[in-house]
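Colleagues,

For the teaching module next term, I've prepared a clean inverse folding example: a structure given as tokens, and then the sequence designed for it. I'd like students to try predicting residues themselves before seeing the answer, so please don't circulate the second half yet.
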């Protein structure tokens, strides 16, 4: 099974080498013209990363879910999985406190 990226290359080859129209090349490659013209856009998370780091520094006891709520209130994110991915990529985590051990005296 040929993926759309492969079909785009076939259509491009037909246009360049055989001087076929875009419409004809897309029809031969069995790909829609909108899929042929599609160009992926890389999403920039720079602003979101900076704000996440700022909030994590300010509220060091907050985990990613509470930080996600703060970011959502500002309108920067919609999906908690995206927030979690950035949270882990930045190496952020809530520090767990060391629990005090209570000595139990068995010989009372």
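(Answer key — instructors only)
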């Amino acid at each position: 099974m040929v993926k759309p990226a492969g079909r785009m290359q076939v259509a491009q080859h037909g246009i360049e080498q055989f001087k076929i129209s875009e419409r004809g090349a897309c029809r031969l490659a069995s790909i829609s013209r909108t899929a042929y013209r599609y160009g992926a856009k890389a999403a920039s998370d720079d602003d979101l990363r900076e704000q996440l780091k700022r909030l994590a520094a300010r509220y060091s006891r907050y985990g990613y879910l509470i930080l996600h709520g703060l970011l959502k209130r500002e309108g920067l994110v919609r999906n908690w999985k995206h927030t979690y991915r950035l949270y882990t990529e930045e190496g952020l985590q809530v520090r767990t406190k060391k629990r005090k051990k209570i000595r139990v005296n068995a010989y009372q």
